Each structure stands twice: as C-alpha cells, then as structure tokens.
Amino acid sequence: MADIMAETVSAEERLPMRLRALYRSYGYTIYKLNNFEPYDLYRENRNFLVNGKVLTFTDSNGRLLALRPDVTISVVKDTKPEQASRKLFYSEHVFRRLKGAEQFSEIKQMGLEFIGAGPGYAEAEVTALALQSLAAVRGPAEPDAYFLSVSHMDYVGALLGELPEQEGLRERLMDAIRHKSVSDIRLALAGLPIGETLGQALLALISLPPQPDRALRAMARISVNRAMEQACRELAELLKTLEAWGLPRRLRIDLSLLNDFDYYNGLIFHGYLRGLPRPVLSGGRYDKMMRRFDKPQPAMGFALYLNELQPALATRSDYDVDTLLLYGDQPPAEVARAVRDLVSRGVSVRAEREAPQGLRARRILRLGEEEP
Amino acid sequence: MINIALPTGRLGKSAYKRFQAIGYGCPGLLQDNRRLVFVNAEQGLRYLLVKPSDVAMYVEHGAADIGVAGKDVLLEDRPDIYELLDLNFGRCRFAVAAPRDWQDDCSRPLKVATKYTRVAREYFLSQGRQVEIIKLHGSVELAPLIGLSDVIVDIVESGATIRENNLAIVAEVAGSSARLIANKSSYQFQMELMAEIRNKLEANL
C-alpha cells in the first residue's frame, strides 16, 4: 500500500495530507463546516472578505443564504464566548469571485484557526506553522523557495494615528504604503502640518532592511508612541521564539502589508512561493473581528490557497497511464485477472474494450494476443 | 534571470535608455522594430516589449518581474504591484476639459466622456458631483463638441489637442509620470537586485 501511495499520489494530493499531519501534530483538530451560511453574516462583514462578493440563493423557507466565501467568519460565529482555547484546522471549498473574473470560482482552501492565541508562544506557534506549511509545498529539496512577509497592524495604525484628521488621508496613505510608493506618500503628505520626523517615519516604513533584526532596529528608531514600541517588543519576542524553534530564516518584516483595520490587529502575514505571482498564504491576528461578534478571546489563523499553489504542484507527466489494456471480446474473468496482475506489480492500468481517443499510455497490451 | 516589461513606443525608448545607462543594456533593442523579446543572457536580463497599458498586467501576473508603466495606467487599473520609483519622465496629467463657454448645471448629473472611467468616477465622487460616465476608446475630445457629453476626462500633455478642439481645461485631476513597478512575489525573492536597479535608476534621474 505504501508503495502505491508513493508511486501514484501526485504532489497536489500529497500536500493536504502532509499539512493535516503537521497541524494534528501540534494538537489542532479538524473542523467541518456547513456549506451555507445566512447571507447577513457576510453583509455585515463585507470588508473582511477578499472582494466583498458573495454568491447567494434563497432556501425553501425564503431565507437568503450564501455559499461560504470565507471560513474564518464561520469559526468566529461558532465560537462560544467562554471557550478559552480552540485549535482547529480545516480543508474546505470557498466560493469567491477572483479578481478580473466574471464568474464565481470554487476555491480549495486549507487553514488553521487558533482561538485564544494571544501574543507570546501562541502567536509564534501559528507563525511557525505558517512557515512550515510554506516549506511543505516544495519540500526539503528547495529550502529557499518561500518567504513569509510579516507586518504589524498596530505599529502602522499607531503611526497613522499621529496624523491630523483629514477626509480620505488615511485611505490614501494606506494605499501608498501597500504599493511602497514613495511619491504617493509624499503627495498625500504635501501641505500637511506635520513634523519632519513623521514624514520620515512613513517613508522608512516601506523601505525596511531585509534582515528581520535590522528591520526591527529601524522600526524602534522611528517609533513615536507607546503602541509602536509595544509592537516592536512583540515582534522581537516573535523572532526570538521562532529562533528557538530552529526554523530556517525565511521570514521578513514588511510593513507595506496592510489588512483592514476594522478586523485585524497585531501580527499579520503573507506567504510567497518562488515562481508564483501572488501570495499563496495569508493570515494574522483578528481580535477585532472577534469583538464584532462579542467574543472576548484573541484569535489568529491563516489560510493556504491551494488553487494558487496548483502551478507549483502540478507534475506534468508524458503519460496518463502506464498500460492501456485492450481486452476486445475476451471473457470478463480473464480481463479481471490481467488487470489484477498488472496492478499488483505496481503498474497503473486502464482496461478498455477499444482504445479511447487521446489517451497517452506508456504501452498498449492486447489481451489474448500477448501475455501481460 | 530577471524579466523586464517595457512599453512599446516613446515611453519605452526613454525607459530603455535609462536601463542602458545604468549597465542593463541589451543588444539590438533600439534597432529591431519587430521583435518583442530581447535577451542579454550574460547579465541575466530579458526585456519584453508590450503595449503600454499592458505592462502592469504582465508585472501583476508575474510574466515580468519589473516594468515601467505610466502612473495614468496604474491609477486606472489599480494593479496589485509595488511602485518602486517615480522615473520623472513621460510627464502628463489627468484633466477635466469642457467647451470654452461651458457652465456646470448642477440640477442634473454631469455627462462625462472618458477612456479612464475609474479615475473619472473617483474624481467626481470626491467632488460630490453626480455623474453619468460614457466610456469611449478614442477621439474623446469630440464628445462635448457634438453633445455626447458635457465634459471629458483625459490625459493632457501640452494641452494642444484640447485647444485645437476648442476645449479648455476646467480642473486638474492627477499628475502622471513613468514609474518603475515590481511584482510583489518576485520582489521577495529578488529584493537585492531590484533594490540595486532602483537605486541606480534613482541616482541617474
């Protein structure tokens, strides 16, 4: 059985198994969800969703339901306020309209949620699992194929909080920061009554050194309030804890990574894989989302987009099957014996009366003419 | 190998000359008018020449690691990319233009003809003015002259085309120039090289 697994299971099928084993080994249990949720759940949290679009339908009682566009909201909703800690992972389909697409897609997602994960060990555990999830995609043969970009919402939020109130300013700056655009930051700040230190800090935000310890020192230098200093301490603690884990140094601090301030706070991250144009993993702390549902716990999680990973996992084979067994008018029992023999030798076989069009087989056997 | 998407035409030529000046040249690129891909294997460079409005798409989808695109295109298409440097050439601006004697009638939505529907919509939204956007693909200046629209939102360089069509600029929307852009994922893996290119280009501005 083990041999068959190794021979015939593709990387695409193997990854979810590896991830399940990884998450289980850290005490996370599988979580199954309903495919449908009341539409109101998403209407009230539209900005949390990747693009706010939801596929809806009416059930037999006239209730408006939605095909789940996200897993985290459902987990938050299902959590009882008194549950101090929940460690869950899931492997589910979500329904989203991808950027530029006219229609909804069914997207395979694997992810993990840690309800009760505050700063300290818990936060480092989720980050370490995100790093190990990325490492699992290409395996030990390519140890430098991934990066986890880490940002801190409270740090950036506290810096933006120093700016004067002006309509649209915060949004313009967030947009400029997300694009690492020096010129757009300067444009947004032009004419504002702010000191030079603040302007310099905003520019430094998007050009941190690649080494995490140096980035952290730069962040400490430009901190202008307690919240920023606290965020630096949290990140320093995280780096130290990850160091103790002995994981490869595939983490970077990148403050241009920003999520919605209404839902996220603290640590957030994106995972990148060499050769894939978009992040394949996304996660972070969402205590604020918990508050919206009147849940007092902190919480953190991440999701791995298996559809984005598909090009990295697809193994192109020249053949669809090892052996095409053509059995014509041979008796079924003869065919069954031949098929069983081939399969037991570890050969994949497709038995057909006649050759199907377009099938690529390594070899063709005709039952009755030649002994397999 | 780093893939660099450059726009065809004048903007691309100016961009390429700047890359050449910092030591990232590629033989034949300025002479050959038909080829769209140029490789400098020694330095690990590949230039892709693409339609100016497509550069950001190539970069966003990872077909190119970096590229040079006009801010006008970035403002309209909003690709999810990094904008590493303002290259300070290819300067132009988005403006609202109207017939010379035009006066806004605030009792009804303003009819706006434009190629840049997003830029136009967001500008008028920020002004609190209701609009009806008419998407055109060319000869936008004609629209207000024949009553298709009240005003236009378009790219203006010298303003000559606007004047020749008896229009006048009534408001400036946003400035534009060529920008060095990068794919967000490629940036993680080629950060040092991209930073070097960016810094050399900046030093040569």
Structure description:
The complex is a heterodimer of chains A (372) and B (205). Chain A has 372 residues and is an alpha/beta fold. Chain A has helices spanning 2-8, 11-25, 39-43, 72-78, 121-138, 153-160, 169-178, 182-189, 196-205, 212-222, 226-245, 287-292, 306-313, 332-344; strands at residues 29-30, 36-38, 55-58, 64-67, 86-96, 105-115, 146-152, 251-253, 267-273, 281-285, 299-305, 321-326, 349-352, 361-366. Chain A is 39% helix and 22% strand. In chain A, strands 1-5-6-11-10-9-7-8 form an 8-stranded mixed β-sheet, sandwiched between helices. A 3-stranded antiparallel β-sheet of chain A has the order 2-4-3. The radius of gyration of chain A is 26 Å and the shape is elongated. Chain B is α/β, with parallel strands linked by helices and 205 residues long. Chain B has helices at 10-21, 55-60, 71-77, 117-126, 142-145, 160-164, 184-189, 191-203; strands at 2-7, 37-40, 45-50, 66-70, 82-86, 92-99, 110-114, 131-135, 151-156, 167-176, 178-182. In chain B, the strands form 2 sheets. Chain B has a 6-stranded mixed β-sheet with strand order 2-3-1-4-11-5. A 5-stranded mixed β-sheet of chain B has the order 8-7-9-6-10. Chain B is elongated and about 65 Å long. Chain B starts with a strand and ends with a helix. The mean pLDDT of chain B is 94. The chains are: A alpha/beta (372), B alpha/beta (205).
